[in-house]
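Why does residue order matter? Because the sequence determines the fold. Keep that principle in mind as you read this record.
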Amino acid sequence: MKRFGFVAAMALLVVGATGLFAFLQDQGVLFIRPGLVIQVQSAQVAGDGTITVEYTLADPKGVPLDQTGVNTAGTISLSFIAATIPKGQEQYVAYTTRAASGAAVPSTRQAAADSGGATATVTQGRYRYTLGTKAPAGYDATATHTIGIYGSRDLTPFGLTTSYGSTTYNFVPAGGTVTNVRDVIRTQSCNRCHGQLSFHGGSRRGIELCVLCHTPQTLDPDTGNTVDLKVMAHKIHLGEDLPSVQAGKPYQIIGFQGAVADYSTVVDPADARRCEVCHDQTSGATQASYYLSKPTRVTCGSCHDDVNFDTGQNHAGGPQISDNLCANCHIPQGELDFDASIKGAHTVPVDSTMLSGLVAEITKVSNTAAGSKPTVTFTVKDKSGAGVPLSQLSSLSLTMAGPTSDYGYTSFGPNITTPGYVTESARTASNCGSDGTCTYSFTNAIPASAKGTYAIGIEGRRTETLLNGTLQQMSVQYGLVNKVTYFSVDGSAVQPRRTVVTIANCNQCHYALSLHGTLRNQAEYCAFCHNPSNTDISQRTNAQDPAQKAMPPQGINFNLLAHRIHYGENLQEAGRSYIVIGFGGSTNDFSDVRYPQMSPTGSPGDTRYCAACHTNGSEQTLPGDKNAVVDPQGPINPVQPITSVCTGCHVTTAAASHALANTTSLGESCNVCHSSTSDQAVSKVHAQY
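Structure:
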């Protein structure tokens, strides 16, 4: 009871004296240890169909938890699902169901959590639950059965958030090894983009649990749409590109208490044709290759929902009355990209194996002293290593920027209108050898007053014709991978620009992030142009939208741009938008971007998980010694570097006022409260759990 006495005292401290909240954060959290780990120890189905499960509850350190919250902190609420995979089938049928009705389906039964069961304590941290639901008469005791448990641990009385947990347990009631499983996609594949896949308030986590309820037996009675996971997941990820959505019919699921989930605006950042982003062949999933070997009308029709397999409409193979012949035409992989095979039909053109490829390297930079015009030696080759004549490229440029301490305010001459950098076409490079080695001398010089380290990067692209002379002939434009090299202009040690984000982190979601017509695809190169002094002014004067032409320029510094884009649809809640005018005066409105990282309560758009993009804890370092950022449409212009970073997401006027009030002629004082060791450190105020 001494232990509980301490917990109770902590609760009184929080409830009775909120000024001691910081004490709870520093000391109480170490004792309470937020988190919930659920593990099933055994499960059985009796002869009369009674289902029982024995399970344990613990904190992340393995200390047993009291489900009632009396002897340990936090009351724990649990829900149970029981399901089976019938012999000869591949998906679950849930025993635990509930009645449902709606406008489209007057009466149906949906897979759901158990009700009417009873919990018994075995010992603290170990419990036995007898389900109110029984297995039906004549159930197959030799088939795979699965118990799913999900729950929450309420720590809000202690000034903390609610902890969530879930687990599944496979068994065969008659005894023996489980051989028939549903293991197509692993949760870690989803979590690369979603952070922590969770839904329905946050307690239902992971694909292993989802497949117990999201089965063919369950419909949304309000829309008539199935919530079968293989259908729903495909439709969600195709989102706005679904043929049905393009035709004007939104894709919606109506859930608890009539909440409408509209997925008609979803855009897959990886391109939904890249099936193996989700169907990861290296995940260890037992059935990872099923998408290649077992095509079905239901699965394929979930994305291609303008195909009518009964009539043959929009299906080159005509009517199909079963799935028996699907694999005859749709083999895993054919002889050519873009054929009827599974991989061929989903080939993204820039990923085609038929492309020759384009690989560049910067091998040397000479004449690097301040005031000099650098000479760059570089190579351009195809993927086989053969040199590529520059005449075959539609674009090849070298960009110079500096210093690397922070880009943006260096002038490369009175005739250069690009702020902080200069780009020159290198297609005229001289002395190109047959091996693809070329040299190019800049016509613009490094500023005579330059100090420190400067950088040069390369970009280029080509267009190739694939399947020439066939009905599928196509032109594909693609770029080389940008390369950046650094050099000293004054004899000091070379200091590359700080690494804040890595393209590998970007590509956890985007797979192959490439912008500006495939020319730019590396974060360290993007920072050359997306620097503190740059805006979209060069294109805004050409804006196709008269209203946008009349607006001030939009700041496009990399930290401002990236934060605002990912904050996306959250901007609207603050009455803000983020619109950049691009090439040709195009309007690029990022105000509806739905960030895929999920909150602890199971909603997308949670930008608190900074490490999804940032690397090596760079989000913890507040860059107070960097250049001020031009932000003509922002409440503060120019805005100081730390404020620019933070108000990329914290877009309210109150947040801007707070930052401004803590900025003087001496600079920003953000580090006083928000440094990595402070009570309001970035890691603490952005903590999700």
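Confidence is low (pLDDT under 50) at residues 1-24.
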